[in-house]
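$ run holo --ligand "zinc ion" --emit tokens
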Amino acid sequence: MQPTGRRAFCEGYTCYHCEHQVEKVHPVTFYEAEEERNEMLCKDCYAEWLESIKG
Ligand SMILES: [Zn+2]
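-- output --
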């Protein structure tokens, strides 16, 4: 587990998946072990995630 401190940056966001700093992220909701988790993904990872949930 990574500490979440780096998300405190005011400029940009850190992608949850690839950990790149990006200006704009897409919020997504993961379901893990019956728990809901909201995470931020960059454009590329978001596109991949969309593909993955399509099945
Ligand atoms: Zn990413």
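-- notes --
The first strand starts at residue 13 and ends at 14.
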